[in-house]
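We modelled the chain as a single entity of 113 amino acids. Its sequence is:
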Amino acid sequence: MNGEKVQALIEVLVSPSADIDSRDDAAMALYATADSRARAALLKVASDASTPDIVSASAGESLGQVAVATRRPLSESERAQLTPEARREYDVFHEIARTTAAPDRTGNSGEPR
């Protein structure tokens, strides 16, 4: 995803005047970039109590996806700032990623063959 597209999505995501569906779509689309601006915007939105629940949840999920893709999880202080909806989605995504990628006792990594 190029820098201009990332910036356009961030502008929609952080705009309280944008409609909820557009903000939610922007939050979900930003999972596909490791751009630090996207991570910062997702964290800002996911930590703001005035953000609609659906947007906050989508931002939390995208933060989880970015954390797994970049191997850079949120710090405990960042995670503590998340709204309950965002934290729930972030944690669920991390648990799924952890159990899918973790080897089981037979040495199976969980990765498809």
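As a brief sanity check on the tokenised model: Residues 43 and 63 are 7 Å apart (CA to CA). The chain is about 65% helix and 0% strand.
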